Amino acid sequence: MTITDQTRTTTAPILELDDIGKRYGNVHALRGVNIRVRKGEVTCVLGDNGAGKSTLIKIIAGLHDYTEGSMKLDGEETHFASPRVAQSSGIATVYQDLALAPLMSVWRNFFLGNEIRKGVGLDIDEMKKVAGEELTKMGIVIPDLDRPVSALSGGQRQVIAIARAIYFGANVVILDEPTAALGVKQSGVVLKYILKMRDAGLGVIFITHNPHHAYLVGNHFVILKLGRVVLDAHRDELTLEQLTGEMAGGQELAELSHELAGADPGKVVPPAPDGAADVVAPTLAADARAELLEEEQDESL
Ligand SMILES: Nc1ncnc2c1ncn2[C@@H]1O[C@H](COP(=O)(O)OP(=O)(O)O)[C@@H](O)[C@H]1O
Ligand SMILES: [Mg+2]
């Protein structure tokens, strides 16, 4: 196939998964997975719950070993013995919740596991200075680096983890559903940093179940379903509508709409005149809570 535009690079892949499979006892969580990750590209891995996305990340990040196939980093077959080995090989992972230690300060988190030392102690001044500079470079304004990370918004936390990965020289950055818990505005911020990483020449693996987010930044799309790759396409081979359709699962939607055929989806049910308060109240409370949560998330960034 010819290279027609700038949506793909021609360099050798930094990370190659060939026929990768993973069994957990009787559960065949992944099988026959082929993925190429290139520097300067965003590779999106999409799939529903149970598709095998986390298993895939854990293999690349050194948490689990694969049981079938081969994984090559820079052309060399690799089995990571631990996450630390994967990290020192240039693979950084930004986990959705575990990205940072919530009770530690921003600068402490930035250097966690890579502290700058001075004599027998830590060079706190230097670490604060560098963390501040690096975050500023990424366009992140955090007035007080001594604040615990738990005081920051979800988007800010993701971005700190991203800045850290770039600073410590990662070649490949894996992001596990970084936008899943975020509102629209904060998701936009994280997506912008995904592009920054691409522009910095990193190989980015963006795990998501949101085809819209994927299509905003992705060069290459892989959909997993029940542990297998069901779609593998470059941007120039696929429209957003096709990606969304594949994710929604055309066939399954058709079956679902058949099942719901008698459900009358447009119907509006007026509130019962009295005695129904017990049933209605919890629903309202849940809605109100969701709204509040959303407001909280949209507050900063
Ligand atoms: N540690 C484990 N032990 C046994 N089964 C697992 C384990 N982790 C995941 N699985 C199974 O593997 C399949 C893929 O899971 P996972 O990789 O978490 O998917 P996703 O992240 O796409 O939701 C699921 O059927 C899940 O139940
Ligand atoms: Mg998962």
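^ adenosine-5'-diphosphate complex. DSSP finds ten helices and twelve strands in the chain. Residues 15-249 form a domain with the Rossmann fold fold (CATH 3.40.50.300).
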